[in-house]
C-alpha cells in the first residue's frame, strides 16, 4: 500500500496543480487584462497558446518518457513549468506573458500522460482503470480550485502573487516526483532515439490504436471541449440564466465530472477482471450520447440539470487510455499514451473551433450570442461524429494485433 501511494500521490497532486493553472485564467484574466491593457483577443490567445504548446509536445515527450522514464521526464519538465509561472508573474508585456504561458503549457504537457505511463508499469490491468479514474478525479478537483477558491486567493495575493505561488508549488511537485516516486522499475538500458522513433511510427500505423482512438476522441475530447467552453454560453443564451445561476450549474458539472471519473474507474476496475472494461467504456459513451440527445430535444428548463450527467457519462472516455495501452508492450506505454492524447487534443481543438463556426450561422435575434437552434445543430453534428466513431469497433469486434 505504501508503494502504491508513493507512485500515485505525487503524480496526482501534480496533475491537480497543473489543471488549476490551466483553467485559472478564467478568473485571473480580468485583473491581468486590467494591469497590462490586454484585449479580449489577447487573453484568448494566451489561453490557446498554452494548449498549442501542450499538444505539440505530446509526441516528442512520449519518446523521452519511453527512453528515460516518466518520473525523470516529468520532474525535469516541471522545472520548465515553474520557470514559466515565475516569468508570467514578473511579466510586464504581452510578449513576456506569452512566453511564460508557452513554458507553462510545455512544462505541464505530460502531467497526465506521465502518470498514465507510470501506472501502467506499477499497477495491474485490473487496478489500472481505478488508478486512472482517481487521477482524473484529482484533475476535476483542480478545475474546482481554479474557480471560486482561486478567485478568493487573487483577492488576497493578486494575480502576480498567485502565479509566483504556482511556481513554488510546481518546483515542490518536481522534487516530490523525483524523490518520492520509486525508480526501481525504470529501464536501466533504453533503445536509441532512432529505434524509438521507428517504433512510434509503428504505433501510429497500428490498427490497435485506430480501433479505439476515434471513439476516445469524439467522447473524451468532445465532452471536455464543450464543458470547457460552450456549456456556459448555452446556459446563458439558451436557458437564459443569470451569471450566478450559470456558474452554479458549471460548478455542479465539475463535481459531476469528479464523480464520473471515480465511479467509472471503480466499475471498469471490477469489469477488467472479466475482460469487460471496453464494454463499460462503450456503455458509458452511449449514455453520454443519450443525455446529449435529451439536451437537444427537451425545453431548456428541463435540459439544464442534464449537464451534470453529461459530465458524468462523458468521463467514461478516459478509460480508452487504459484499454489501448494494455494491447501494447509496457515499454511502448509512453508513446501510446501521448499519441492517443495528441489525437484527443487535436480533435478537441476542432470541436471547440467547429462548434463556434456552426453557432456563427445561427445568431440570436438580439444580435448577441447564438440562437438555440445553433446549439442544437452543433450538438447533433457531434452526435453524428460519435456514431461514426463506433464503426471500427463494430466492424471488427476483436481487438486487432498491436506492435510486436
Describe the protein's architecture and organization.
The protein folds into two domains: 165 residues, Growth Hormone, Chain: A (Up-down Bundle), CATH 1.20.1250.20; 207 residues, Up-down Bundle (Growth Hormone, Chain: A), CATH 1.20.1250. Helix content is 80%, strand content 0%. It is built from 20 helices and no strands. Helix 4 runs antiparallel to helix 18, helix 5 packs antiparallel against helix 9 and helix 7 runs antiparallel to helix 8. The two termini are 33 Å apart.
Provide the residue-averaged pLDDT.
Answer: 84
Give the strand content: under 5%
Would you tell me the structural class of the helices and strands? Answer: mainly alpha
Quaternary structure type:
single chain
Tertiary shape? globular
Reported by name, the CATH topology of the largest domain is Growth Hormone, Chain: A
Main β sheet profile = none
Query: How many independent structural domains?
Result: 2
Helix content: over 70%
Q: CATH superfamily of the largest domain, please?
A: MFS general substrate transporter like domains
Given this structure, which CATH class of the largest domain is correct? Mainly Alpha
Report the C-alpha radius of gyration, rounded.
Answer: 21 Å
Would you count the extended β strands for me? 0
Label the CATH architecture of the largest domain.
Up-down Bundle
Please provide the ordered H/E string of secondary-structure elements. Answer: HHHHHHHHHHHHHHHHHHHH
Whole-Å distance between the termini? 33 Å
Amino acid at each position: 500500500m505504501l508503494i502504491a501511494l508513493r507512485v500515485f500521490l505525487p503524480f496526482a497532486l501534480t496533475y491537480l496543480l497543473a489543471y488549476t493553472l490551466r483553467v485559472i485564467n478564467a478568473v485571473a484574466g480580468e485583473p491581468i487584462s486590467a494591469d497590462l491593457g490586454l484585449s479580449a483577443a489577447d487573453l484568448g490567445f494566451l489561453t490557446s497558446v498554452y494548449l498549442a504548446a501542450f499538444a505539440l509536445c505530446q509526441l516528442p515527450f512520449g519518446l523521452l518518457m519511453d527512453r528515460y522514464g516518466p518520473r525523470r521526464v516529468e520532474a525535469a519538465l516541471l522545472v520548465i513549468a515553474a520557470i514559466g509561472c515565475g516569468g508570467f508573474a514578473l511579466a510586464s508585456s504581452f510578449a513576456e506573458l506569452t512566453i511564460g504561458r508557452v513554458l507553462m503549457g510545455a512544462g505541464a504537457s505530460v502531467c497526465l500522460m506521465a502518470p498514465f505511463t507510470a501506472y501502467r508499469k506499477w499497477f495491474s490491468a485490473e487496478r489500472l482503470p481505478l488508478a486512472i479514474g482517481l487521477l482524473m478525479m484529482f484533475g476535476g478537483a483542480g478545475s474546482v480550485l481554479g474557480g471560486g477558491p482561486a478567485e478568493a486567493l487573487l483577492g488576497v495575493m493578486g494575480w502576480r502573487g498567485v502565479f509566483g505561488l504556482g511556481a513554488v508549488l510546481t518546483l515542490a511537485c518536481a522534487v516530490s516526483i523525483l524523490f518520492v516516486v520509486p525508480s526501481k522499475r525504470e529501464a536501466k538500458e533504453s533503445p536509441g532515439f532512432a529505434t524509438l522513433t521507428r517504433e512510434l511510427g509503428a504505433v501510429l500505423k497500428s490498427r490497435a490504436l485506430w480501433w479505439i482512438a476515434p471513439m476516445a476522441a469524439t467522447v473524451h475530447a468532445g465532452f471536455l471541449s464543450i464543458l470547457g467552453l460552450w456549456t456556459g454560453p448555452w446556459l446563458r443564451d439558451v436557458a437564459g440564466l443569470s451569471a450566478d445561476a450559470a456558474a452554479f450549474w458549471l460548478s455542479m458539472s465539475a463535481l459531476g465530472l469528479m464523480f464520473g471519473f471515480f465511479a467509472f474507474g471503480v466499475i471498469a476496475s471490477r469489469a477488467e477482471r472479466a475482460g469487460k472494461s471496453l464494454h463499460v467504456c462503450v456503455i458509458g459513451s452511449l449514455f453520454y450520447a443519450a443525455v446529449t440527445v435529451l439536451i437537444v430535444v427537451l425545453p431548456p428548463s428541463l435540459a439544464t440539470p442534464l449537464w451534470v450527467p453529461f459530465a458524468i457519462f462523458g468521463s467514461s472516455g478516459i478509460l480508452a487510455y487504459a484499454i489501448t495501452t494494455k494491447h501494447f508492450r509496457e515499454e511502448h506505454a509512453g508513446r501510446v499514451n501521448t499519441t492517443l492524447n495528441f489525437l484527443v487534443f487535436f480533435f478537441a481543438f476542432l470541436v471547440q473551433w467547429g462548434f463556434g463556426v456552426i453557432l456563427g450561422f445561427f445568431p440570436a435575434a438580439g444580435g448577441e450570442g447564438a440562437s438555440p437552434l445553433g446549439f442544437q445543430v452543433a450538438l447533433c453534428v457531434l452526435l453524428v461524429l460519435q456514431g461514426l466513431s463506433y464503426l471500427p469497433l463494430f466492424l471488427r469486434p476483436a481487438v486487432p494485433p498491436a506492435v510486436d
